[in-house]
Predict the structure.
Amino acid sequence: MDETIIQSLRAQIDRIDKSLVDLLSQRMELAYQIGKEKGKTGQTVTVPVREEEIYHSLEGLNSRFLSTEDLKSLFSQIIALGRKAGEEGARDVKKKIGQTS
């Protein structure tokens, strides 16, 4: 394979990687905001039913290189990071509420 083609393909991968990071950052920000809302009412951040809905939604989304199991494995990490962001949001709102009391 021509080195120019390889470099071009790698540049495309780099752009996709940046897009993935941008999208994941947006997802974490939304999880953080959800955590803040839940923190206001004392709700738990983790909702196993919601997590199962996410896993279920992945069924049938597989592609040539990504099986349903691959996607579930990948999303288990994404969900864990989202949970962490949500917990941070809940903590932040509780700190803020504690400061105004």
User: Anything to note?
Assistant: Helices lie at 3-41, 48-58, 68-100. The radius of gyration is 18 Å. The chain has a mean pLDDT of 94. The chain has one domain: 3-100.
